[in-house]
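Hi U.,

Before I forget, here's the chain from the pilot set. I'm dumping it here mostly so it's searchable later in email.
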Amino acid sequence: MTNIIITHEKYQIPAYVAGKENNRAGIILIHEVWGLNKNIRSLTDRLAAQGYIVLAPDLISQTGITEKIDQSILAEAANPATRDEAQKKMRAAMTPIRSEEFGKETIERLRICFNYLRQEYGLEKIGVMGFCFGGTYAYSLAASEPDLAAVLPFYGHAPEKEEELSRISCPVMAFYGEKDIALVQDLPRLQMSMKKLKKDFRFKVYPDTGHAFMNDTNPTTYNKEAADDAWREALKFLKAHL
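Structure:
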């Protein structure tokens, strides 16, 4: 378990790495919009304990977003009395990560992380797991890196274009909360497209569960029953494909 800086000619990428060097499979773990925090480091350690080299890159601190918002905003957003103001704060703070340029650079950073794991540790198989912001970029990395072995997006937005979905070559296991309305409403479209494209796609929706149910540092969103089941399912999926 150590903090590193991945040095590239274009980027300096801070990251947290855990796992024994003789492990033969790796996982890129992509954080939520809150950045490389305690929850993500804990998940990194838990995955490493299962026998993987796990790399959790910091993809947003350079934007300054993590200094402007914290998880207390979620509590404000859940309160009808403060919801409107909280949502305004979040929209303003997240402006830097909504640009097309940021999206392209983030995929570049993730592919650098993929190559780092492969070259530094000689890993034979590498998967990606991500949450919210990270779930969205888990899908995007899968569409950009043909050598990925598995992808596990937790409550992430899948690409809308079938051309992008068509580039996903590895199995996908996605997780959602039933109350995460926008994502759940998009599932029929996604399922139909993946079936049409003959992709290995499966998903699980947890009843009476909202967004960010895996984050045990956030009592507003955490759902232990759903989180425990999703973790078991994720580990089974990883074992089958890595």
